[in-house]
Structures are given as C-alpha cells and as structure tokens.
Amino acid sequence: MTVTADMAISLDGYIAGTDVAIDNPGGDGAEPLFEWIHDLASWRERQGMTGGKENRDSELMREWFDATGAVVMGRMMYDTGEEFWGDNPPFRAPVFVLTHRPRPTLVKEGGTSFTFVTDGIHSALDQAKAAAGNRNVDIAGGASTVQQYLREGLIDELQLHVVPALLGGGLRLFEGLGAGRRSLEPVRVADTPLATHLKYRFVK
Ligand SMILES: NC(=O)c1ccc[n+]([C@@H]2O[C@H](COP(=O)([O-])OP(=O)(O)OC[C@H]3O[C@@H](n4cnc5c(N)ncnc54)[C@H](OP(=O)(O)O)[C@@H]3O)[C@@H](O)[C@H]2O)c1
After folding, report:
1. Helix, strand and coil percent figures for the chain, each rounded to 5
2. How far, in Å, from the CA of 124 to the mean position of ligand 1?
3. Which helix (H) or strand (E) holds 162?
4. How far is the CA of 54 from the centre of ligand 1 (A)?
5. What Cα–Cα distance (Å) separates residue 41 from each residue in 5, 10, 69, 123, 192?
6. Protein residues whose CB sits closer than 6 Å to any atom of ligand 1
7. Which of 34, 116, 125, 178 is the most exposed place for a label (fewest CB within 10 A)?
8. Domains of the chain, CATH where assigned
C-alpha cells in the first residue's frame, strides 16, 4: 500500500493562488497551475468528455487515475470542487474528506463516494487504506491537508507537476512542516513543454 501525493505546483512553490474561496476555487492567479490539464485525453475522459491530446502528460494523468484506489482531501478542496465535479466526479473511488463539520456520506455515480471524517488525519488515512484494496491512497490536497500528512511522515511518494510559471503569491505547499531534514530519492523525471513531472520517494 503506497500513500501518494500528486500536486500541480508553480516554480515558486504555490499550489493555489490568493483568496481561495468557494466562488474562487483555485484562487486568484492560479490558472497556469491547471491549464495544462484541460486538453489531456485522460482528464477529459474522466470528466465525461471525448477527444483531447494523447501525450506524455495524459499518460501520467491516466497512471494516477489507474493507481489510485481511495482519496483523502480537505474540506476546502471538497467545497471548492463539489459543484464542478457534479454527479459523476472524476475520482471513481471512495473519497475521505477531513472536516470539523459532519455531513452524511454522499454516494455519487461512477464509484465515487464522499465520507466526511471528523476524527483526524490518521482516521481518514486508515479508512482510505481499508477502502483502497491493493491500490494507492492519494492525499489529494489542498495545501493544509498535504502539509499535515507530510509533517507526520505519512506520505511515501510525492509527485510534483512543476508548471513553468511564477505565481508570486498564494498557498505554499512546503510550509509549516516543522524543522528537520526529510530525504527523498528521485524516482522519475518526465519533462514536457507543459510541465516538469518530478516523482520522489521519501527515505524512511
Ligand atoms: N495544485 C494542486 O494540485 C491542488 C490540489 C488540490 C487542491 N488544490 C487547491 O488547494 C486549495 C485548498 O487548500 P487549503 O489548504 O485551503 O484547504 P484543504 O486542505 O483543502 O482543506 C482545509 C480544511 O479541511 C478541514 N480539515 C483539514 N484538516 C483537518 C483535520 N485534521 N481535522 C478536521 N478538519 C480538517 C478544515 O475544514 P473545516 O474546518 O471547514 O471543516 C480545513 O479548513 C484550493 O484552492 C484547491 O484548488 C490544489
């Protein structure tokens, strides 16, 4: 069982723009983080659309979809994504949402469910592991959620899709992790005109 995190990030380290809100999901200035994704065939397929580009970026996106058996996310990512994902969200797997605000489980089309977890990151991860079968658990975001799992050393593999843009402000991924070195070994670098895809494994 591998616990992954897979994030689009600007060269200056931001995973969202400024002023993230329900009606401003990625925050101001975040477009470059996500625009490389929209034309990928594998992404479009998960949104119920046809066509799109079959390229290396699309392959890497498909690899993530195929490998992921359950997902953990924060309530802000959920709240900002809920309307966009609609009745058939792209995850097609059980999703565990960290929150202080309980809500009944939602079962959507295509294999996605959203279970709202109020008893902390370990509980959410345990539930996701139990649901993932022999596939990975992905800690999908946002910043606060990935930071909590990084801080506790609970992530095995980290993939960063580094987009060639400086955002200048927004939500940083690598913040509040506490002092102390964490060593990583490079697993793969895939370089395309759209993004540099860096995959690392934490050395435990
Ligand atoms: N670049 C990327 O690849 C990527 C990927 C995913 C998301 N994002 C972006 O990330 C942004 C959201 O990130 P974020 O850091 O603001 O928020 P987040 O991590 O999505 O959610 C934070 C919220 O989750 C709940 N929560 C988190 N940890 C908890 C815990 N241990 N116990 C109980 N509740 C907990 C709290 O909500 P409540 O107190 O309200 O319940 C908290 O305010 C969005 O803009 C999204 O677009 C980017």
Report:
1. 25, 30, 40
2. 14
3. strand 157-163
4. 31
5. 22, 23, 21, 35, 16
6. 7-8, 15-16, 20, 25-27, 33, 73-77, 80, 98-101, 120-121, 140-145, 148, 171
7. 178
8. 3-202 (3.40.430.10)
Mutate which of 37, 68, 77 for ligand 1 pocket (most atoms within 8 A of beta carbon): 77
Which residue type occupies 80?
T
C-alpha radius of gyration, the chain, whole number: 16
Could you tell me the CA-to-CA distances from 174 to 32, 142, 179, 190 in Å, in that order? 19, 12, 12, 22
Tell how far CA 25 is from the center of its chain: 14
Distance, in Å, from the CA atom of 24 to the CA atom of 17, rounded to the nearest integer, reads: 9
Instruction: Report the DSSP pairing between strands 196-202 and 184-191.
Output: antiparallel
Q: pLDDT tens digits, residue range 110-149? A: 999 999 999 999 999 999 999 999 999 999 999 999 999 9
Residue reference for tokens 């309307």: 83
CA of 165 to the centre of ligand 1 (A): 23
